[in-house]
TrEMBL record:
UniProt GO molecular function: NADP+ nucleosidase activity
Protein name according to UniProt: Putative nucleotide-binding protein
Residue span, CD-NTase-associated protein 12/Pycsar effector protein TIR domain: 113-234
Pfam family, one: CAP12-PCTIR_TIR
Top-level taxonomic group: Bacteria
Length: 261
């Protein structure tokens, strides 16, 4: 698991905590261990973790047990909020700012994020994601990222700060013009996938966007994207080498031997 996935798993463990399950101590120890590994032993998150209270600050004989449970819930929410801050911190650490001649410049520390736009074809999504990981790159799949109270548009915008996009056009919808008959219907990709394709073409440019489309009969490929690379998807993996070439052409470090694994 990478750092982001570790914090996501910690967040899930924290959300799953209940007052009587006895797992609080284990989660607290794991949280401190992960903070030390990810942010260092002198991180400000360590004292912040230790300050979180899961029991009342004061107690007396005969005190209603509901106070203990309320304190536990309050501490649990505080822990989850702190983990969310850590995740945001980790996302921001992918870039840092320098001041030069009065101007702020953002310098990327990593060049490895690839946004994976997908429809409902799970095989295409999974095989593409695993291929990206095999190249030691990081696939960004939107629904796998934490929501943190954001709308879909806000979340999409936040995670669209990537170096490349691979758009998967799968035969998810069946559609036809109102002037045509039902028998003339053709397969199409989901409309949100087409929308995101246009977004990344505008944001990254044509040279940093590749379309991988499902090979089925009567599949309609968008006609208004001249100059965009369209590569047919097949279960034999013949699409992998063309995508690797496009990645290498824009500066990604690609180890050719990994294509043979």
């Amino acid at each position: 698991m990478n750092k982001t996935e570790l914090l996501q798993s910690l967040e899930k463990e924290s959300k799953d905590l209940t007052y009587k399950d006895g797992n609080l101590g284990k989660v607290k120890k794991r949280a401190e261990m992960l903070v030390t590994k990810i942010f260092g032993g002198k991180s400000e998150y360590i004292p912040a973790l230790r300050k979180i209270r899961f029991s009342p600050a004061m107690a007396w004989s005969g005190m209603d047990k509901s106070y203990y449970e309320k304190s536990f819930i309050s501490g649990k929410n505080e822990l989850i909020n702190l983990i969310n801050v850590m995740q945001e911190d980790l996302n921001l650490s992918d870039s840092f700012e320098i001041i030069e001649n009065g101007e702020t410049q953002v310098i990327k520390e990593s060049f490895n994020k690839i946004f994976l736009v997908h429809g409902h074809n799970e095989e295409m999504k999974q095989s593409s994601a695993r291929f990206i990981e095999k190249l030691s790159l990081k696939p960004i799949i939107l629904h796998e990222q934490p929501n943190r109270g954001r709308t879909i548009i806000e979340k999409f915008t936040d995670y669209s700060n990537v170096d490349f996009a691979i758009v998967l056009l799968s035969a998810d919808d069946l559609a036809f013009s109102k002037k045509d008959k039902v028998e003339n219907a053709s397969f199409r990709a989901r409309q949100n996938v087409i929308l995101e394709l246009g977004f990344f073409l505008g944001k990254l440019g044509r040279e940093r966007v590749v379309v991988l489309f499902e090979q089925v009969d009567n599949f309609e490929i968008p006609s208004d994207y001249q100059g965009v690379i369209f590569i047919p998807y097949d279960s034999n993996g013949n699409w992998k080498l063309p995508i690797a070439k496009e990645l290498k052409a824009v500066g990604f470090k690609i180890d050719g031997s990994k294509l043979l694994e």
